[in-house]
């Protein structure tokens, strides 16, 4: 039997052991009987798969055994071994990982292993939205690339995870709603993106940060900072200024740009009569005009507080989130903004709601940290649908989990809520 045949037999046996009994172990008999490796003629670069500089991700947990290029990965044809399942396949089928990642250095993984890797990442997440990374270089993969490698139900589950992370329960109507922005259409996004660019105070800073955020090299929190400092000033308006157009209706500044275009919009805006002034949120949570800020803080202090007002969640949802077609990036930016400025109004009944504490009020007089610290001592019960630990902070004993399951809190009744210390 030739050395190549022996090698194929031993590798096949080792692969079977890898998937059935444990880690990949080269049989000692094979090492002791082969002796020194005979010289091998130099191969063309296209005849082998370049090994990755990092250990590839294991679908079963732990590090897999990387195939060592020139002796174990090929025969005389254009063949190679997948770095995950170790199956011998044509080199063209091992280009799947590089096609998804966009880097030729990440070739060496077959399509079947990629699909299993992506689907396992999504299936293992219950209450988080995982960032899908390359199986070899660990770089972030856009959703538009990896979704082509999985079945449609897997991608729909991923989108459902994003929506659940942004769920809120209205304290007035008791409805469970998601704050997630809708999937933007291509035509709408192109026009809205151009109008957004025209309104930025520092376009270069926004574009540079946006590019890094899409690649995953800039955090969502940093992007929120840059949008507040250099993006359109009306992102800070809880209620934007509105002016009357030629048709007699009143519109915001961004709507003038969308309708008239860059060259004419500012001129029409300057000539239009003011219908209502812009309002921004102060530290007490209420909305005020710039004139009211000046009456309270004076000219110098008012301008500083006016400029440092938080980005309005509604403005972000209307002006920025529809411009991001990647569901993971869109959700990450939305969550970063809500965690920094958690005091919002529910979209259905316009009721006060704290997203960070998940309670139907702004808990005036107490910070989020104080509320969460007190909640740490509250009894926890588990959702019957998904098993997540749940705290009862307010309301009746009828529980509605973020996963959609309904169940009854054990050991309490509605009368307990009248004297509850958690009824904000």
Give an overview in words.
It is a single chain. The chain has 424 residues and is an alpha+beta fold. It is built from 16 helices and 15 strands. A three-stranded antiparallel β-sheet has the order 6-5-7. Strands 1-2 form a two-stranded antiparallel ribbon. Strands 3-4 form a two-stranded antiparallel ribbon. Helix 9 runs antiparallel to helix 10, helix 10 (220-230) packs across helix 15 (327-340) and helix 11 crosses helix 12 (262-271). The longest helix has 18 residues, at 3-20. The chain is globular. The model is unreliable at 1-76 and 415-424 (pLDDT under 50).
List keywords for this structure.
424 residues; alpha+beta; three-stranded antiparallel beta sheet; two-stranded antiparallel sheet; 16 helices
Low-confidence stretches: 1-76, 415-424
Which class of secondary structure composition applies to the elements? alpha+beta
Categorize the overall geometry: globular
**Radius of gyration, Cα only, in angstroms?**
29 Å
Sheet having the most strands? 3 strands, antiparallel
Number of strands: 15
Strand order of the largest sheet: 6-5-7
List the helices and strands and how they pair.
Blueprint: H1 3-20, H2 28-34, H3 69-72, E1 79-81, E2 88-90, H4 96-101, H5 111-123, H6 143-146, H7 152-165, E3 167-169, E4 176-178, H8 186-199, H9 203-215, H10 220-230, E5 242-244, E6 250-252, H11 253-260, H12 262-271, E7 273-276, E8 280-281, E9 287-288, H13 290-307, H14 313-320, H15 327-340, E10 343-345, E11 352-354, H16 368-375, E12 380-382, E13 389-391, E14 398-400, E15 406-408
Helix pairs in contact: 7-15, 9-10, 10-15, 11-12
